[in-house]
Write a structure and sequence with these properties.
kinase; Sig_transdc_His_kin_sub3_dim/P; histidine kinase; alpha+beta; ATP-binding
């Protein structure tokens, strides 16, 4: 995830972005009522303190006190519109506070609300105006108990404090909004990654289904074809072919049940997982192919096949299984040579080769995806696979897989 992909994560974009609560709601929530009442009470409290200080001077006419009271009350009531017009209200109260000290509290609340609900530019503009006119109010209506310079410094510091506090609150809201967006985006990306992982797992299961069932079903097809074209075969051969068909059908059902079990969710079946093939079980695959009538020559040069890594051994097994299946399909009657060499640190090399077919026979149709799946399987295991025809019309598949040193 990059910032250019999601511009709302940029600080500059967030600084000018509209945050929740910046616009006035059609109907105030309970929180809005509580905050607005609290702001009104704070402004009214400051206005009462200022009005009491003016009254204690003793030199202010009663008419002026009445006007100050009315204007102060109106300034406090105007705060109910601070969400709708924060910039205009803050500017108006700033101008009003020049001649009315009782409007100072409402001005501070308006400046704070402006800093919270509006970006930096309008806040800085109105805040600068408030700082510029800050010396005018003590000059027009000085406080006898406080010096002019002290009043100016106190007013400037108070304005800066309110503006800073408001901008800190807005920055925190921006941070929370950014974190929420990032969390939402991360959750969405996690869901996409989970879906992608599930899709890749299903593709792997589909390739596994092709490798396993193609081997079993090819045996069924070969022996069923033999029974069809040689109905006068000896009883022993018919019985052996029928036995291979039965065993292959049973194994195909077992493999299919295993694959369906993987596709099911956990707890949907009580069957345990069947052991996965390894390099040590390669001999069983060769024996099965020989019983099916294939001519297979094995050159096994691995000293300890049981010590091979599980993933590497399983990949070698699947490569040999697919190659034997393809040989039965496309080169019936040809002798297949399986060579396995290597060891820890040197890696494992498997080569399956067959010459051109010597017996004409009806070939079993194939999808052509087996070698593609083997190439992907070898690549995922950290190795490589090569395949192609030989000069004599045969075919060879050669794969090299890693076997780390102990």
């Amino acid at each position: 995830m990059t910032r250019t992909e999601y511009p709302w994560l940029l600080p500059s974009a967030m600084a000018g972005a509209e945050l929740p609560g910046d616009r006035a709601r059609a109907r105030r929530t309970v929180r809005d009522w509580v905050v607005d009442i609290l702001a009104f009470l704070i402004a009214a409290g400051i206005a009462l303190i200022a009005l009491a200080a003016i009254e204690n001077e003793g030199s202010t006419p009663d008419a002026v006190l009445v006007v100050d009271s009315v204007i102060g009350a109106a300034a406090c009531c105007a705060l109910w519109f601070r969400r709708r017009w924060p910039v205009a209200l803050a500017a108006a109260l700033t101008v009003l506070s020049i001649v009315e000290p009782v409007a100072g509290g409402a001005m501070m609340v308006a400046l704070f609300s402006l800093a919270v609900h509006r970006p930096f530019k309008p806040t800085a503009f109105v805040g600068a105006g408030a700082l510029i006119v800050a010396p005018l109010q003590p000059w027009l209506r000085p406080d006898p108990e406080t010096g002019y310079l002290t009043s100016v410094i106190f007013g400037v510091l108070l304005i800066l404090l309110v503006l800073s506090w408001g901008m800190v609150v807005r920055s925190r809201r921006q941070l929370v909004l950014t974190l929420r967006e990032r969390a939402r985006r991360a959750e969405a990306e996690a869901e996409l990654r989970a879906e992608q992982a599930q899709r890749l797992a299903r593709e792997a299961i589909a390739r596994e289904m092709h490798d396993v069932l193609a081997h079993r079903l090819t045996l069924l097809s070969v022996h069923a074809g033999a029974l069809e074209f040689r109905p006068d075969a000896p009883t022993a051969e018919i019985a052996r072919a029928a036995g291979v068909i039965r065993d292959s059908a049973h194994e195909a059902l077992q493999d299919l049940r295993e694959i369906i079990g993987v596709l099911r969710g956990p707890g949907d079946t009580g069957e345990g997982e069947r052991p996965q093939p390894t390099l040590a079980t390669l001999d069983g695959l060769i024996d099965e192919s020989r019983r099916a009538g294939m001519k297979v020559t094995v050159d096994q040069r691995v000293a300890a096949p049981a010590d091979a890594p599980a993933a590497t051994g399983r990949t070698v097994y699947r490569i040999a299984q697919e190659c034997l299946t393809n040989a039965r399909k496309h080169a019936p009657g040809a002798e297949v040579t399986v060579t396995v060499t290597g060891g820890p640190g040197d890696g494992l090399t498997i080569e399956v080769a067959n010459p051109a077919p010597t017996e004409p026979s009806e070939r079993v149709p194939g999808s052509g995806q087996g070698l593609i799946g083997l190439t992907e399987r070898a690549t995922l295991a950290g190795g490589r696979l090569e395949h192609g025809p030989t000069p004599d019309g045969g075919f060879v598949v050669r794969a090299r897989l890693p076997w780390p040193a102990a």
